[in-house]
Amino acid sequence: xxxxxxxxxxxxxxxxxxxxxxxxxxxxxxxxxxxxxxxxxxxxxxxxxxxxxxxxxxxxxxxxxxxxxxxxxxxxxxxxxxxxxxxxxxxxxxxxxxxxxxxxxxxxxxxxxxxxxxxxxxxxxxxxxxxxxxxxxxxxxxxxxxxxxxxxxxxxxxxxxxxxxxxxxxxxxxxxxxxxxxxxxxxxxxxxxxxxxxxxxxxxxxxxxxxxxxxxxxxxxxxxxxxxxxxxxxxxxxxxxxxxxxxxxxxxxxxxxxxxxxxxxxxxxxxxxxxxxxxxxxxxxxxxxxxxxxxxxxxxxxxxxxxxxxxxxxxxxxxxxxxxxxxxxxxxxxxxxxxxxxxxxxxxxxxxxxxxxxxxxxxxxxxxxxxxxxxxxxxxxxxxxxxxxxxxxxxxxxxxxxxxxxxxxxxxxxxxxxxxxxxxxxxxxxxxxxxxxxxxxxxxxxxxxxxxxxxxxxxxxxxxxxxxxxxxxxxxxxxxxxxxxxxxxxxxxxxxxxxxxxxxxxxxxxxxxxxxxxxxxxxxxxxxxxxxxxxxxxxxxxxxxxxxxxxxxxxxxxxxxxxxxxxxxxxxxx
Length: 574
Fold this sequence. Notes:
Elements: H1 10-16, E1 22-26, H2 33-36, H3 40-64, H4 68-80, H5 84-96, E2 100-102, E3 108-110, H6 130-142, H7 146-153, E4 157-162, E5 165-170, H8 171-174, H9 176-192, H10 196-208, H11 214-224, E6 232-239, H12 253-261, E7 271-279, H13 281-288, H14 294-299, E8 319-330, H15 331-334, E9 343-346, E10 360-365, H16 366-369, H17 374-384, H18 395-408, H19 424-438, H20 440-446, H21 451-464, H22 476-490, E11 494-497, E12 500-503, H23 505-525, H24 528-538, H25 543-555, E13 560-564, H26 566-572
Parallel strand pairs: 1-13, 8-10
Antiparallel strand pairs: 2-3, 4-5, 6-7, 7-8, 9-10, 11-12
Helix pairs in contact: 1-5, 3-9, 4-5, 6-12, 9-10, 10-11, 17-25, 18-19, 18-21, 19-22, 19-23
């Protein structure tokens, strides 16, 4: 049994776990009316889905860091002995879902001494450098080991050493025992589900967890993306923002050309999350109002005649949308690292289901978007936003913007843009933001928004774009907001007057259209160096950003966050 040394002092731990510095997002409680209203069969289904989601969390911990499970066991032993330092460290470990993370100030948090975060997280050998990685791949390709290299560079493999080479082991084979346990729980969930469509999806998902076959995932994803009228939500999220190793291949011209020659895609590794919830029918009806406009938005995307996109302008949009009351978010989707996701649009462009006629699905997280402290919100507005524009700030408008953001992921080039390397996700997130803003005027003309809602979306979005600190380049979701702030400032979308933001409302949408066009052009061309230049030219932390950041830091002391899942914990123990 391995021993570890704590990296954070008691003083630091006491600070970070204090309620003023640790934000808590509360999932559904045991007596939640949403849960009590479920039919008995669906309550039983929910129990098994929660159990499956927590098994997935264990799997994701292993691909996140080689030492997570050992450290978790160490913490549990120390907590039993009454070790207070272990108790407080475990609060952060459970919140971050791992040993290494980043806080809201973009500081790296390492909970154990000597265990740092690697670009390849737990999916590549710890002692594998970027340079050696490239050399080994080049050698293997030149020796004709094409299939072996494809297995290394798929999004669904763990990479290990084999002599002086590397091998890729499919997740399903690597974690066979745990995935089988998950599949058993999901099959049990299907047996009691009151909804035939949902039960069919669960059976497909369980099958995909038993056999290492990407096509089985595709069938499950395709069915999941059609679900619209179900009482429950269950998702295995697979996103690749965490892998910083695979994307380095785009920086190596010789290796990139070899991969292109042999038709090998270097797709970043998926990290896995579990989402379990109850579909909120009223919230879902509100979301669906945008669906009728998606084909029109697709037609109005920049350079729309130069590429295929997920939304076909000439047919019904293959896009389902649900608003969900969350019971549990586990693994990658539940990790509070600098922030936590408000919604997701899946499957991503690199997934096989999109090549066999599958659509996409937006799931919105009600418990995560709720604002618990309106007084703090008002303090923030008083400090950073022109008082005359407070009338246009509305926290619900952030949700409207998020709806536009998630749908914009389905617009633009359908290809996954792996050639953009580590800038790929930054560019894609920037596209989604600008897609949301660029169409606000059009959607107002079409009747989706009132003039008042239009102003609220614009002002709320610009005000919310300011951060508490400069992010690191690995934080795609935050880097793009810095880029936008610089871009908007230079073109007059807002001014800083007497230390406060004044939004020039009518300038914002035209500027967003400009930026959207530039981003889509980069995605079409797929040139790594153009993407790099675009990001670095715009990722500039200005004096005005620092001025607002200092004000935000005084009002919001939060450094870390966590989720609290009362109902899920009860169901786990049944």
